[in-house]
Amino acid sequence: MKLTSPHMWPAEWEHQAATWIAWPHNLDTWPGRFESIPPAFVKFAVALSHFQSVHVLTGPANARPSAVALLGKDALSKAGQLAQYPIQLHDIATNDTWIRDYGPTFVRRRDDGSLVGIDWKYNAWGGKYPPFGDDALAAESICRVAGCTRSMSSLYCEGGALETDGQGTLLTTSSCLLSPTRNPGWTREMVETELKRQLGVEKILWVDGGGLIGDDTDGHIDQLARFIAPGVVVVATSSDAGDPNRDGLEANLQQLRQSASADGAPLAVHALPTPPPRIVDGKRAPESYCNFLFANNCLIVPTFRNETTDQAALKLLGQLLPQRKLVPLDAYDFIWGLGAWHCASQQQPTT
Questions:
Q1: Fewer Cβ atoms within 10 Å of its own Cβ: the N or the C terminal residue of the chain?
Q2: Rg of the chain's alpha carbons, rounded to an integer?
């Protein structure tokens, strides 16, 4: 029996009302490297503001002064970083900056097109990083500010674990959503039923070849495979023959090349090679160009100071999306928090 959902989840490339981001303040996220993070985040916010409105959660009370000092209108004006669209600051407490994962997944109602925020249950990637109580409450506050209905889910799920083509197809991974630290006792069928109910998707492709060493999310799809148009997917692969990630990423590529979207059409799949392994202090940085972000008329692409793979990624994405302005944005330091620009944002579609 086919499930009927009152919701539909727009693709990220559809027109957006705004992007939501959260001011970075947790020193433990970038141990010993935090100094470069606020300036990088300001560049991110300003880059977004050239294309659409930006909403910023300023975090706990002790973080708000730095957010205002660097992102307030007067601060940006003095720094010569004028925002074309408004950057609005909101006094909403957070534990960390990864709003993709704890913020609401915005969908539309099928009947009247009104905005709904899906509020998934959140426990910081399976309880890895307590405390996370402020992050778990943030979606409710965001929905209130956005003036939209909130739909509460009983599924522990992060936004980075979900990827859609806006046409009824969803990509995700078993290693994340079926992990025992998130949803013990849930079967795959139960998870699929809840995803279809909340998001209005029809077909779910579980991309289970393998993930990235250094990734602490148990395999978020937004680091592995992304739709860039209906039926068109880019997939992270390895640019280094000796990379331990290589076989798993290749398995993802081959699986998707043998898959079809909800309408039954085969997917068009393109390899998007990652930079060679980069290890500092004994840890691998989970670098992937799949962590790009759509905003109105543009694509913000993380770069990692590797000329060869940075340029190859930009060339491929430029060929596949010729009508969009590519905005390369350095994530060399930011990635040490184990996420890049898609992880640090959440889009709000227009209604």
A1: N
A2: 19
Residue ranges making up the domain that contains 314: 7-349
Whether the CB-CB separation of 275 and 311 falls below 8 Å is answered with no
What whole-number distance in Å separates Cα of residue 100 and Cα of residue 138?
11
Q: What is the pTM of this model?
A: 0.97
For the stretch 197-236, pLDDT in tens is 999 999 999 999 999 999 999 999 999 999 999 999 999 9
Domain count, the chain: 1
Q: Which of 143, 176, 298, 343 is catalytic?
A: 343
Rounded CA-CA distance 128/130 in Å is 7
> Does 2 fall in a domain?
no
Mean pLDDT for 19-30 is 98
Residue 314: Cβ-neighbour burial (10 angstroms; 0-12, 13-18, 19+): middle
Tokens of 351: 């209604």
Tell me if residue 27 falls in helix, strand or coil.
helix
Is 290 marked active-site? no
Residues 256, 269: contact at Cβ < 8 Å? Answer: yes
Cβ count near 15 (within 10 Å): 10
The CATH number covering residue 333 comes to: 3.75.10.10
Which CA distances in Å does 45 have to 40, 49, 81, 291?
A: 9, 6, 10, 16
